[in-house]
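Rotation project, supervised by the postdoc (A.L.). Task for the rotation student: set up a whole-complex structure prediction and record inputs and outputs verbatim in this book. Inputs entered:
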Amino acid sequence: MATYFVRRILIAIPTLVAISFVIFALLALAPGDPMAQFATNPEVPPAVREQLRASLGLDQPMPVRYVKWLFALAQGDLGWSFAARMPVVEFLAQRLPQTLAVVGVAYLVSIIIAVPVGVFTAARPKSWLSHIVSVVSMAGISLPTFLSGTILLLIFSVLLRDSPFQLPMIYDTQLKVKDFASLLQQFRQSLMPIIVLALFNAGAMTRFVRSAMLENLPLDYVRTARAKGLTEGVVILKHTLRNSLIPVVTLVAVGAPAVFAGAIITEQIFRVNGIGELLITSIQRSDTPVVMAIVFIFAVLVVLSSLIADVCYGLLDPRIKLS
Amino acid sequence: MSKNRIPILMTVSVATSVMLAACAPAAPPPAAPAATVAPAAPAATAAPAATAVPAAPAGKRGSGGTLKILYWQAPTILNSYLASGTKDFDAARLIQEPLAAVDPDGNIVPVLATEVPTEANGGFTKDKMSITWKIKPGVKWHDGTDFTADDLKFSYDYCIDKATGCVNIGRFTPIDKFEVINPLTIKLTFKQPNAYPWQAFVGSNGYVLQKKQFANCIGDKASKDADCQKANNAPIGTGPFKLRDFKSGDVVTYDFNPNYHVADKPFFKEVIFKGGGDAPSAARAVFQTGDTDYGWNLQVEAKILADLQTGGKGTLRTSVGPNVERIMYQPTDISPEAGDKRGELGTQHPFFSDVNVRKAFSIVIDKKVMSESLYGPAGDPTCELITWAPYISADKLFGGRNDCTKPDFDTAGKLLDDAGWKKGADGIREKGGKKMHVIFNTSVNALRQKEQALMKDAWTKLGVDVELKATDAGVYFGAGPSSNDNIAKFFVDIQMYTNGAGVPDATVYMCGFASEFVAQKANSWGGENNLRYQSKDYDALCSAMKAEQDPAKAKDLALKMNDLLVAKDYAIAPLIARKNVSGMAKDLKGINMSAWDSEMWNIADWSR
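Outputs recorded:
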């Protein structure tokens, strides 16, 4: 088991380096400029903009910049942000709490909804509830978050304004939950983004759980279990569900790093200003060190989570041996 | 091990799609290219008004509760010398101050100075070579230490070092000698006579840094040293508010400064300066839901803005400034076949090298319709490039000295016919087998794309084959060497954007179109004159204006240059005089937006 772990991690290193190179090259080739905001500002003439770019190290050729970045990374240094002039790590640390509080919670909520609902609709495919679920989950998948988010904002912030049901348009990232009142406020301000994201995630996940269950239900071992006279509950939950969980675990594990990357659009709509918002604004202002850090950490997390998923297979299905 | 490959492939594809999304037109339109940073009073006005005393405070210092400000672009740094946009200058303004601010009329108003130096009070020498600033005594930094001339000298040293990467360096380069006469007096001597000396330490490009805090941050260390990085995001100032907490790119919170150097100010106890989202939803938050008290730069299409304003919670405020949305015509050969000569002086554009063709294009644009349907309160149609008093009064912008009020297709058609560009069988004009085809580029922005469509309609009617193009703002206004789509290279036939003078004196701005500043490959496309405008008459007017001592004559020269550009040579077609547009809660008082300074310049006077 230990050697398996070590081998997998060693294999991952060249992959990560390759990924980092591709992203760095893409960023360097992309025609952006961190000083773009000053292009039409007569107070910052072109010569000064050139100086500013040089002070950011952007006058050096791309391969030199990449090697410097890689060496710094090897020493655990992700560099400093062009826009904030502070270490990228601190920048990310400022953003992570609200991303976890919104995107992370939404992910958990969607798992908590998707598994039981998926199991139920597979077990009772003809019930009216199953029909409703399939409509809602389809809507969840197909409604883009910028649309569902805007609709929620229009209803709960604009139409219901000055009523007890009004929800804030602006997410307060400085709110500290310390008593019931602040907990309630946190609930109110994160309700809309969580609904948007949970609807989106749970839609896909429910359908995934359901189809995994439907694949297993007609199989011989299920029939055997029923023939043994086990109750329907035991057949579904103990036998079918456990076997159906393998693809679901893959989905959940591979999707989990996305929590770190945040939700670009939803975070922008509700001004949650988490990592997703940081990623997109950093891309827009060509803040290379920040983009590199987010994408690279994301890549590491994806590699790690796929490793964790593989370990989980062994626990769920003893026939799978890790070697 | 195919199972291992899948997640890795997914990572790459996710990353790639993120990058592709970045290259494709991005969603939020960075509407107004930041140009609202500026100082002082026009040389053409008499002289800076000495002390414009602002509104009386509405109560005891710090008695006003919380003020919520919303910027759809979030501040990312609070050291304005390393800023990357208007948002940073504005967020820093609550903490740090300049010696003098610039009010909406372009007058200079003392802040940390006792008075504005003028020739009349002897602070500005008759030979225009030096200026002496006297500092208000008794001003304290937030940490309780004294504010002195050493801090000014330090700020100059900090910024003038090229390795610091200071964006305000242009304000300091004219200074030849910086003398600290005594702890409360500095004397600046210029390299050459300077008719407009109120630049260093004036307005949003002139906040003073505390020497004690930044002493070890000059040069390379400004951005790289850990202590300096901390200082950049937690500056100590003299301003009405002290920093409580800053989350970069998200939110700044401030507490009022109990020792502020103006009695009984500021009114508000705390300020929350939140960033993020987009302009339309910021407008919603201020006009409809009341989630915020102040919404910055609400560049939203006129119809939507009018609709949102019915919300009842807020009102719209505008400030008139120098910013003009304009199109410019390509004078050189920019076809890819030109190779190394692409965009170089000495080559000729197939038709825009002919002034009559440029004129024909200019006189068919319906600026009135464009302004009313798209800009509404955020802009007025203009036929002039210089749009501000005292050069031109607001009512003379359209149909005043230069007339361009009505689209004139008959004249335009005749001009093109006479120039040899006759309509072919397909309705497209041609000459010598060459079709009249133009590529028209601008930044990705809903408003701009609609402006483009309006102009395309007009030119199509004229018999021109128009191809519209839109480039992501980060690329269009950027200077990435790999890109050909930026405004500096100008490798299209027509391009459109907004800019304007940085100071109320037009000399530097108008002389930016002089031949010597042309953007060429040789200077890495780094000249102000990206229009590649070449005119001996214009250059002569510029030299004359620089040397002119009489404000009235200088004003005349500036207007002559304006006329040459827009009405004689038709090198530029001004379209819309754009205003700064912000929304504020109905009960907010004391706001006095200045296009020549930060919108936050008088926040100490704000009250409820």
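Student's summary: Chain B touches chain A through 104 residues (CB under 8 Å).
Supervisor addendum: The CA atoms of residues 179 and 605 of chain B lie 33 Å apart.
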